[in-house]
Amino acid sequence: MIKKICSLAIIFTAYFGYSQEKYTVNGYIKDDANGEALIGATVYVKELSGGTVTNVYGFYALTLTPGTYSIEYSYIGFSTQVKTIEVSANQRIDIELGEEGVELEAVIVAAEAEDENVTNVEMSTAKLDIKTITKIPAFMGEVDVIKSIQLLPGVSSVGEGASGFNVRGGSVGQNLILLDEAPVYNSSHLLGFFSVFNPDAVKDVKLYKGGIPAQYGGRISSILDIRMKEGNIKDFEFNGGIGTVFSRFAVEGPIAKDKASFIVAGRRSYADVLARTFTDALEDGAALNFYDLTAKANYNINDKNRIYLSGYFGRDVFKFDENQGFSWGNSTATFRWNHLYNERLFSNLTVFFSDYDYELKFGDNDRDKFTWDSRIVTYNVKPEFNYFLNNSNELIFGGEALLYRFTPASAEVVSDGEVTDVSVDERKGVEASIYLGNRQTISSRLSMEYGLRVSHWNYLGDGNVYTFNDTTAGFRREVIDVRGTDNWESIQTYANLEPRFSFKYQTDPTTSIKGSYNRMAQYIHLISNTTASNPLDVWTPSSNNIKPQIGEQWALGLFKNFSGNMFETSVEVYYKRNQNQIDYIDGADLLLNEFLEGDLLVGDGRAYGAEFYVKKNKGKLTGWVSYTLSRSELQVDGINNGEWYPTRFDQTHNLTFAGFYDLSERWSLSANFTWISGTPTTFPTDRFIQQGYVIPRIDDNARNNVRIPDYHRLDISATRYGKKFKKNGKPRKVEDFMVFTIYNLYSRKNPFSIYFAQEDGRPPEGQNITTEARQVSIIGSFFPSISYNLKF
C-alpha cells in the first residue's frame, strides 16, 4: 500500500511539475462594432498548427509552454487579427474583430473562410447567421427563424400553417427549442405562419440533429439553441421595420459604456386594425393579432464576473367578440452568471422560468359560458463548467434540475348560472441530470467528443393516480383502481444513462469522415392527433402509465470542400430507433379527459435516411441545395395489425434550394424552392350506409394508408438598399432597405389535408349516395408583399 501511495505521489508531483512549465492565454473575442461576443470564433496558434474555438459566451483558453507564438484570431465574415506574444506567464488577451473591409492596424483580411464544416468534430448540425436568414424570401416579407431552418437537410414541416418543425422523422414535440436556454413550448405566431423570435434580437441560431453533446437533454429528436443579442455596449442603435402584417422595432445601447448594455425588441401585428376600416366583423371586442416583447441586459462586474438577465413575452389573440375566443402565448425569464475561477476554469450558472398557456372561452354572458385554461410551467437551475485541461482536451461538466407543473385543464361550464367544474388535476414532475463531456484532439487528423449524461425523473402528486386494465390492443383501457396522493408525493421514478460520442477523421485538408451516436431520454409528451400541431395540444408527464421516450441515433457522414472553400458539400446517413412512442386509439378523447392515459397506445419508432448538401460560399451568386431521402415509421399493437406504418410527418423526398445574387451595390435578388413528397393520411377502405348517411370503414386498423399530393412552392424577393452617402459625400447615418417578396409565385394549391364528405341533405330512398374528396389548401395563390427596414 505504501509503495502504491509513493508511486501515485511521484506521478502527481511529476504531473504538476510539468504543468508548472505551462501557462494559459485566455480572453474573450468580440465584435468591435457593438461588443457582442463572437460564438465559435477560431484561435489558431501557427507554431502548434492547432488551437481552439470560443464558447457560447465568446471565451477561449490556450495552454502554452514558454516561448514566442503567432496567434490568429478569426471569424467568418470578419477580418483576421494576428498577434505575436511572448509567453512567460498567464495572460488575458481580449480581442475585438471588425467586419471584412474595415481597415485596422495589424489586421489582415482572411483569404478564405475556415474549413469549419470539415475540421470541426461536430456533425448533423446546422448553423444560420441572422444575415443569411434576413435574405431568405419569407411569407409577407417577414424574416422568420423557424421557416429558414426548414430549408436545411433533414428539417421539414407538414405544410403551410403548421406550428413547429420536424427533424429526421421526429415529431414536433420531440424538439427542444431554447431561447437563451429557456424552453419555448410553442414557437409559432398566427397558427404557424410566423415564428415567435424577433430577428432584430437574435444573434445566433444552431440546430443539433444528431451528435448532441452531453450538456443537452430532455428531447429525443433535436435541439434548437437560439441566443439573443446582448445589446450594443458602445453606442445606441435602433432597428425597425414596417411590413404588410406587422411592424417591429429594437432599441439597444450602453447602460454604462463598455460595462453594461441592453436591448429591447417588440412586434405587433395590425391586420385587425386595418380590417376595421373595411368590415364590421371585428366590432364588439373582436380581435385578430399577435404581439411579443424581447428584452435583455448584461453587466460586466469585473474581469471574472458578468451577469445577464433576459426575457420574452408574446401572445396570439383570436377573439370573436369580447366574451368569446381563444389566445395563447409564451413567457420566459433567464438569469445567467458567468464566472472565471482561474485561467482555465469557466463557469455559467443559469436559472430560468418558462410558462406556456392557452385560454379558450365561449358564451354570450356570465350565466351561460365555457372557460378553459391550460398551461405548462418550468423552473430550472443549471450550473455548467468549462475546464480547458490543455490544448487537446476541453471538459464540460455540470448538472441540471427542472421542475414541471402541468395544468391540462382548469375548466368550468356555466349553464343558466349553475357552475360545473370539469377541470383535470394538476401534475408535477422533477427532472434532474448530471453530465460530463470531453472534446479531445488526438492528432492532427483525429478528434473526438464524448460524454455521458445521467438523468432521473420523479412523477409527483397530488391528485388521483389511475391504474388501467389490460384489454385488446387498440381499444380503450378502463380504470380498475384510483388512488389519492399527497402533495409532492413521489408516485413513479425513472432513470436513464445517455451516452454521447462523435468522431472526426480528416483524410486530407479538405475532406473528413465523421460519425456519431447519441442516446436521449424525454420525460414529457406532447399529446396531439391532429394533422399538424396546434396551440391547444396538451403536454403530459411520464407517469405510472406512460414511460419516458428513449431515442437512439447513429450517423455517418462525408464532408468535402472544393475550390478553396468556395463550395462545401456533405453526405450524411442516419438511423434512429425510438422506444415508448405514443399513438392513439380510434376515436381517442384527448381534451378535458381525466382518463387520457387509457386512450393512449405505446409502441416503437424508427427513422432512417440520407441527407445531401451542397453550398456555395463565395461570389455574387451564393446559396445551397439540399436533398433528403428518408422514412419515418411506427409499430404499435392495435394499429395496422401490428405492422410498421408511416408517421403523419413521413416525407420520402425533400428537395430545397436557396439562392442569393448580388446584382449591384443597391440591389440583391433571392429565391427559394421547396418540393416535398406528400405526407401520409388515412382514407377509408370501405363504407356502409345507415339511414341515408355514409359511414366510412377502415379495414385491418390501417393508419396513414395513402399519401396526399406532393408539396412544392417557389418564392422570390428583391432587396433595394438605400444610398450609403449623401450628395455631399458624407455617409448617411441611416441604413435602410426595402424588400419586395412574392410568396408562392406560381399559385400552387398545396394540399394541407384531404377529407371525404357526402352531398348535402339526405337523398331520396333508393337513390345512390355520392361522396367526394375535398382538399384543404391554406394558401392557394401567389402572395406579394413589401416591407421597409431601417437602422440608425
Provide structural commentary.
- With 792 residues, the chain is mainly beta.
- The protein has three domains: 2-110, Immunoglobulin-like, CATH 2.60.40.1120; 125-225, TonB-dependent receptor, plug domain (Ferric Hydroxamate Uptake Protein, Chain A, domain 1), CATH 2.170.130.10; 226-723 and 781-791, Maltoporin, Chain A (Beta Barrel), CATH 2.40.170.
- Helices cover 5% and strands 57% of the residues.
- It has a 22-stranded antiparallel barrel. Strands 3-2-5-6-9 form a five-stranded antiparallel β-sheet, with no helix packed on it. It has a five-stranded mixed β-sheet with strand order 10-17-18-13-14.
- Strand 39 and strand 40 (621-636) form a beta hairpin.
- It is globular.
- The N and C termini lie far apart (72 Å).
